[in-house]
């Protein structure tokens, strides 16, 4: 009785080194351990093929002269040479030990890169993981379009970047339907991500995820006239607001610790939610109509 | 990965160990066991098996050239196959790049060192793909990480979001880590007389006392989700939301969500403090109601009145 791992190893060796794709019969003749009898042999081969594919071994199947033939293209099987020094390998081990990614395959990856190095590092960060991420990454690296359902609609996107900002994952790229660059929150993708034809688009050379994210910021809605709003924030909330909006938004810092921030707004409901969310630590200074809107909103709550 | 393994696990490991051995010419069973995280007897069994594998006619030049010696060493020579490991899967490549970029995003980590170089090589090998990670950089992060290493007691001015107030307290910093988009400090708080989880971005001021405390481990698992960490008392609140407020259900961990006939939405939420509830109610506006508990029914109106005082 041949050990299954022995048969699988022989199968991989054969399909990797064969000069032409092989039929099931040729495989059964050259790999010890396949049962006699066409049906059971085919069944066993299908199970083996399934297992290999699950492990990431790229078995191709095509039809040649009416027969199914199989091989493993070496350039798709082998990890490309990229010459990591020992120091660099250890650095990757440290990173995998220090950063936890749920469902991450860091250990499996390191085994392929020369095994595990002891890395006595306390966990430093935990990164959210989402089922859609590996598929989006696969699409991104192969320059293949990604298809997914978002807010109930099917979208097809050419991923230019995958970015983690403030604890949320974003995928940014050319939306084929809208014919424009769009940003999607990965945790709002519903269901599976389909990966299309590789090498079907080019990634722009200087794509800046932060420029795109800032552009779609929450104070703006397309079409409305922007309004400059000034908000006074007291000393208790000032540090948090400064960190959230950035130094550029701070117009004035007072000796008391209060700050005045300057925002360009078209999305007035979003601005209102944000200001009232600061409770009694903030008030709208100007313009008068925006200040009036906030007062009216509060008066409706406290008649 | 000890214990139960299936053929897939064993094969995956073989496809990684064989090229490594072929390149080095050999290694001891113990070294292989340690490096590839597997029991030594498994190593012997699987590598002995590998030595029998190859392609017809299975003559010595067509077999994987691995020999397991009685003295606990393994000798190997390169051959026609398994000269390199199997390529990384998308999930493996993604994990490595993300872990690496996250560590590089920690303030103070060398941007030009071996990790950065490793990630550049990896990204190139993966077709030029990248993962872009940015972590927040709160003002007192570096100082707090230093005090963890030094076991130094500090006094912090801390903004408690749930009570919407700033208080000063003496704490013994035990661990700093990033989770769910924010940096956290686990410290023994002398006021609370227990371990607490603090958000580093809410530390408004810090004074290093120069006093050392005896090193100890934290009982809190840094990677456990927020709900397992001690903090302000959580209360369950039942709200009735206007029909357009589905964003609340999507954004917060609501329970018992029911859509009523009139379109309004009943939800239950664990609320960790009055201020948090007030913020939510002010954002929702007059269409939202607190159904339960009774003492919070007026919370929205009271908060609105307080804020209005600024405008008058």
In short:
The complex is a heterodimer of chains A (303) and B (312). In chain A, 38% of the residues lie in helices and 26% in strands. Chain A is of the alpha+beta class and 303 residues long.
Main sheet: strand order of chain B: 8-7-6-5-9
Helix content of chain B: 25-40%
Globally, the shape of chain A reads elongated
* Number of beta-strand segments of chain B: 13
- H/E element string of chain B? HEHHEEHHEHEEEEEEHEEHEH
Unreliable runs of chain A: none
**Tally of DSSP helical segments of chain A:** 11
* Rg over CA atoms of chain B: 29 Å
Give the low-pLDDT segments of chain B: 227-231
Q: What percent of residues of chain B are in strands?
A: 25-35%
Q: Could you tell me which chain pair has the largest interface and how many residues each side has?
A: A-B, 105 and 109 residues
Estimated structural class of chain A? alpha+beta
Largest sheet, strands/sense/barrel of chain B: 5 strands, antiparallel
- Per DSSP E runs of 2 or more residues, the count of β-strands of chain A stands at 14
Helix content of chain A: 25-40%
Helical region count of chain B? Answer: 9
List the helices and strands and how they pair.
The complex is a heterodimer of chains A (303) and B (312).
Chain A: H1 4-17, E1 22-23, H2 24-30, H3 38-54, E2 60-64, E3 67-71, H4 74-77, H5 86-98, E4 99-101, H6 106-112, E5 125-127, H7 132-142, E6 146-150, E7 153-165, E8 168-175, E9 180-185, E10 189-195, H8 209-215, E11 227-233, H9 235-245, E12 250-253, E13 259-265, H10 268-277, E14 282-286, H11 288-301
Parallel strand pairs in A: 4-5
Antiparallel strand pairs in A: 1-3, 2-3, 6-7, 6-10, 7-8, 8-9, 11-13, 11-14, 12-13
Chain B: H1 7-24, E1 26-28, H2 29-35, H3 40-50, E2 65-68, E3 73-77, H4 90-105, H5 114-125, E4 132-133, H6 141-150, E5 152-160, E6 165-179, E7 182-189, E8 194-199, E9 203-212, E10 235-241, H7 246-251, E11 255-259, E12 265-271, H8 274-284, E13 289-292, H9 299-311
Antiparallel strand pairs in B: 1-3, 2-3, 5-6, 5-9, 6-7, 7-8, 10-12, 10-13, 11-12
């Amino acid at each position: 009785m041949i050990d299954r791992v022995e048969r699988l190893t022989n199968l991989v060796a054969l399909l990797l080194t064969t000069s032409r794709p092989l039929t099931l019969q040729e495989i059964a003749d050259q790999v010890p351990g396949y049962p006699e009898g066409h049906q059971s042999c085919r069944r066993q081969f299908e199970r083996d093929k399934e297992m290999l594919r699950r492990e990431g071994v790229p078995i191709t199947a095509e039809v040649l002269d009416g027969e199914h033939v199989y091989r493993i293209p070496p350039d798709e099987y082998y990890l490309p040479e990229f010459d990591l020094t020992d120091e660099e390998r250890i650095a990757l081990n440290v990173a995998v030990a220090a950063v936890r990614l749920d469902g991450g395959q860091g250990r499996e990856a390191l085994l392929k890169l020369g095994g595990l190095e002891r890395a006595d590092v306390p966990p430093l960060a935990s990164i959210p993981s989402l089922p859609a991420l590996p598929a989006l990454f696969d699409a991104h690296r192969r320059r293949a379009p990604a298809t997914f359902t978002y807010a109930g609609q099917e979208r097809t996107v050419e991923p230019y970047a995958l970015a983690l900002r403030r604890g949320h994952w974003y995928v940014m790229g050319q939306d084929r339907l809208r014919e424009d660059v769009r940003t999607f929150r990965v945790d709002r993708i519903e269901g599976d991500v389909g990966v299309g034809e590789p090498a079907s688009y080019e990634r722009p050379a200087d794509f800046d995820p932060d420029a795109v994210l800032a552009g779609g910021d929450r104070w703006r809605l397309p079409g409305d006239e922007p309004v400059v709003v000034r908000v006074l924030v007291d000393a208790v909330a000032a540090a948090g607001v400064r960190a959230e909006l950035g130094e550029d938004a701070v117009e004035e810092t007072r000796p008391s610790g209060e700050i005045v921030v300057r925002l360009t707004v078209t999305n007035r409901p979003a601005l209102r939610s944000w200001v009232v969310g600061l409770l009694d630590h903030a008030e709208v200074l100007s313009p008068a109509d925006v200040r009036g809107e906030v007062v009216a909103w509060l008066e409706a709550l406290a008649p | 990965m000890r214990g139960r393994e299936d053929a897939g696990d064993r094969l995956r490991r073989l496809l990684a160990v064989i090229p490594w051995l072929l390149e080095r010419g050999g290694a001891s069973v113990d070294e292989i066991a340690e490096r590839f995280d597997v029991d030594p007897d498994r190593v012997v069994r699987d590598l002995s098996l590998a030595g029998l594998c190859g392609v017809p006619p299975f003559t010595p030049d067509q077999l994987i050239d691995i020999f397991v010696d009685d003295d606990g060493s393994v000798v190997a020579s390169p051959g026609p196959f398994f000269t390199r490991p199997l390529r990384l899967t998308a999930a493996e490549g993604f994990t490595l790049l993300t872990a690496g970029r996250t560590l590089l995003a920690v303030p103070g980590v060398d941007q030009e060192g071996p990790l950065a170089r490793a990630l550049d090589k990896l990204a190139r090998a993966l077709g030029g793909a990248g993962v872009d990670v940015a972590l927040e950089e709160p003002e007192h992060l570096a100082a707090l990480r230093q005090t963890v290493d030094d076991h130094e007691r500090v006094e912090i001015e801390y903004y408690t979001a749930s009570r919407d107030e700033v208080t000063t307290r003496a704490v013994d910093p035990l661990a700093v880590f990033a989770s769910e988009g924010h940096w956290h400090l686990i410290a023994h708080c002398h006021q609370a007389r227990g371990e607490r989880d603090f958000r580093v971005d809410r530390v408004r001021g810090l004074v290093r006392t120069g006093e050392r405390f005896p090193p100890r481990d934290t009982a809190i698992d840094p990677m456990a989700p927020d709900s397992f960490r001690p903090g302000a008392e959580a209360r369950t609140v039942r709200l009735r939301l206007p029909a357009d407020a589905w964003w609340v259900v999507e954004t917060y961990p609501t329970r018992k969500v029911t859509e009523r006939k009139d379109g309004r939405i009943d939800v239950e939420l664990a609320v960790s403090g009055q201020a948090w509830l007030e913020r939510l109610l002010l954002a929702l506006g007059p269409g939202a109601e607190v159904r339960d508990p009774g003492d919070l029914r007026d919370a929205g109106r009271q908060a609105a009145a307080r804020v209005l005082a600024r405008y008058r």
